[in-house]
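Message: Study each token:
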Amino acid sequence: MAKYGKKAATKVKRAMHERKRGELKSGRSGKTVKSRKQAIAIGLSEARREGGKVPPRKSKSRKTKSSKSKSRKSKSASS
């Protein structure tokens, strides 16, 4: 079964064309996108927003709780 739908393909294709022409801008800063990978990511996120068949984003690794919070819990438990 295919991972990506037709909408994802069209959005990525459009983003790549815009990047080649120098018209693709990144989100918040509005800088011109030069990276191929970034253009693909923008196309996929647009397809995701419009309900296209795209796998969910890879989640960022969460940091584990710091040792300070663990030591606080052990001190309060002993008191």
The chain has a mean pLDDT of 85.
